[in-house]
Each structure stands twice: as structure tokens, then as C-alpha cells.
Amino acid sequence: AQSVTQLGSHVSVSEGALVLLRCNYSSSVPPYLFWYVQYPNQGLQLLLKYTSAATLVKGINGFEAEFKKSETSFHLTKPSAHMSDAAEYFCAVSSYNQGGKLIFGQGTELSVKP
Amino acid sequence: NAGVTQTPKFRILKIGQSMTLQCTQDMNHNYMYWYRQDPGMGLKLIYYSVGAGITDKGEVPNGYNVSRSTTEDFPLRLELAAPSQTSVYFCASSYLGDSSTPAYEQYFGPGTRLTVT
Fold it and tell me: Are B96 and B48 contacting, i.e. CB atoms less than 8 angstroms apart?
């Protein structure tokens, strides 16, 4: 079975500081990995995805994530936080044999202080 | 393209009432999904569909029913609403092609916030 663990339900950074949101996954087959962002009272929007091509994946709004198989991790980073980055972030895993189903982590709420 | 649309945006139900949450997508996606989101719990899959006429249970299907008569629509039915069904419900869709061009990312609607009292 697949699973996702996001370390830290809440992360707070100062504007301009590095953003690091952690995601570890468990999968017995090669995974597909995703990061989604949810702004208040909205649906989820895809930030980036890993589907077995380049291990460093660049997404929208300056975010990127690196797939590390040896660490079973897919951490999300952004060099410089902006106030508009405040939102909830979800990591999700799937694979070729899951029929498109995603398994989501519990979410990490990012706060950005001025 | 409107993408994935959901109605209503908000609804309050009394215990024992029933209702249907509507979901429509205009992207000609073959797969559709229903999730519920509870605070601190992430999203849990309720039901999904791989095409018109084909549906299957997800992780938390009890108390819900679905149907898929067309590619575009995937309504979620709540029978005998209970307080435990108070949640935010999201519909999503995706296109799964052949194994050489997997998509797998899901496109989400704006959600329906349901309160059962």
C-alpha cells in the first residue's frame, strides 16, 4: 500500500526566507508524486509533479521539489517566501497500477510573516 | 473551459435529509473522483469512476452513492445525512491515457461545504 507523511502540520517563515515543506512517501512500485496548493476557501491547484523523468522538478510560483529515492522523500522548496505563498500544501502519491487514484498527506499549513 | 464545477457551494442539512452534490467537467476526462476534506486529515477518496457507467468505492464510501451516466457528470448522493458527514467535498477529474503518456494529475473543483445539524 502507498502512503504519504508530511512532517509538520504548520510551518511559519518570514517573508524572503527559505520555504521547506517535507514529504516522505511509501510505495512498493515506482511512484508518481505531486504537490498541490490550496488557498483559503478554494479547491486544490497542482504546483508540480514527478513522473519518473528529471528528479528535480520545477513548478509554478517559483517552487521546486527533488525526488530522492534513497530517502523516499519529495520535499518542496522555494528560495524566498512571499506573503502570497500562505496556503495549505498537500503532497500526494500515485503509481501506474493505482488507476489514477491519489493518496494525500495530511497537509502543511504555511504561514508567512512580514 | 470552465474546468470542474460543483454545486452548491454551501449547504446546511438536517439529520436524516438527503441531497445530491453536483459535479461537471468539460475537459473530456475519463476519470472522476469525489473526496472529502476534514481538518488535519488531508483528502479521503469516497468514490471514483473510470468512465461512464463504471464506478468504484474509495477509502470512505459508507453513507454515499454515485452514478456516472455521462462523461461530464459525476453526482454524489448523500442518503440519511449524519453529523459525521459534515465536511468539505471536492470533485476532481483526470485523463489517463496509455502507459507511455500518463497524466495522473487531477483537476479539482472549488468544493461544496456541507454542514449536517
Answer: no
Instruction: Count contacts between A and B (CB, < 8 Å).
Output: 61
Q: Which chain B residues are closer than 8 Å to A51 by Cβ?
A: 102, 104
- B50 interfaces chain A, CB cutoff of 8 Å: yes
Task: Give the strand pairing for A19-26 and A3-7.
Answer: antiparallel
∠ at Cα B54 (B61, B70), nearest 5°?
Answer: 110
CA distances from A46 to A19, A63, B21, B58, B92 (A): 17, 11, 23, 21, 12
pLDDT of chain A, 114 residues: tens digit per residue? 889 999 999 999 999 999 999 999 998 888 899 999 999 888 999 999 998 778 899 999 999 999 999 999 999 999 999 999 999 999 999 877 777 789 999 999 999 999
pLDDT in tens, B99-117: 555 557 899 999 999 999 9
Report CA torsion sign: B4, B5, B9, B13. Answer: negative
- A7–B contact, CB cutoff 8 A: no
Question: Using a CB-CB distance cutoff of 8 angstroms, which residues of chain A are in contact with residue B105?
Answer: 34, 46, 49
Q: Determine whether the interchain pair B31/A34 forms a contact, defined as Cβ–Cβ distance below 8 Å.
A: no
